[in-house]
Amino acid sequence: MNSLFDVEGKVAVVTGGYGVLGESMADCLANHGAKVAILGRDQKKAKQTALSLAEGGLSCMGLKADVLDQSQLFQARDRVLEEWGKVDILINAAGGNMPGATIGVDQTIFDLNIEDFRKVTQLNLDGTVLPSLVFGKCMAEQNSGTIINISSMTVQRAVTRVVGYSAAKAAIDNFTRWLAIEMAKKFGEGVRVNAIAPGFFITGQNKDLLTNPDGSLTSRGNDIIRNTPMGRFGE
After folding, report:
1. Using CA atoms, how far apart are residues 155 and 170, in angstroms rounded to an integer?
2. How far apart, in whole angstroms, are the C-alpha atoms of residue 130 and residue 112?
3. Residue 165 among the catalytic residues
């Protein structure tokens, strides 16, 4: 059997693990034999997601941890180490946007709410850096592991309106490259850092922006689909 991508027995931590993307990634890892810790600010949602996966006999746990609270991240890390003894994989899936950091159709850049801009960049960028420091240290100490950050297609080309989100995701791309070099030079080739840009998915945060109440696409939704080779949103 080709075991190049075998994750059997690996320990994975997924921040934002009950979101659309995070939950799907956690589900896939668990179903391929990994032990998965689902982290999020909402402890109830994290535990419910973990329990739903565990019902199938999979090894999962849900933990409360705000990605902007280093002490909560340390507590979650200690719980994972206590239960499973190591951390092999970190997926930084937590992130998001908010209206004040988005330019409305009747607005210009000069209407930007700078406080919301800061909150969005902090959530996405700091919310990737802090978990990488907390869980990445485990990987550095064991000289093996992989960190996967979530980039965005808004980095590859200018997508109108989402100025805060775009800036934060561009910073994540840069941080990913920087950390990959840092880990390789100081801790060897066993620790890898990469980012993926999944493309556009319908989520709770962007549903009203991309679809109408009847399920049809908004003008923005149609613009995105016209520029998507497969002609549909991600599933």
Report:
1. 5
2. 26
3. yes
Distance CA 57, CA 145 (A): 25
Listed as ranges, residues in the chain with pLDDT below 50 are none
How do beta strands 191-196 and 89-92 pair? unpaired
Q: Which pair of tokens denotes residue 216? A: 């049809």
Global pTM? 0.89
What is the predicted pLDDT for the residue at 40? 96
- Which residue among 165, 175, 187, 200 is the active-site one? 165
Contacts of 131 (CB under 8 A, 6+ apart): 13, 15, 39, 67, 73, 90, 92, 94
DSSP-assigned beta bridge partners for residue 211: 217
Q: What are phi and psi of 35, to 5 degrees?
A: -95, 125
CA distances to 131, 167, 231 from 101, rounded to whole Å, are 23, 10, 28
Cβ neighbours for 159, distance < 8 A, ≥ 6 positions apart: 153, 166
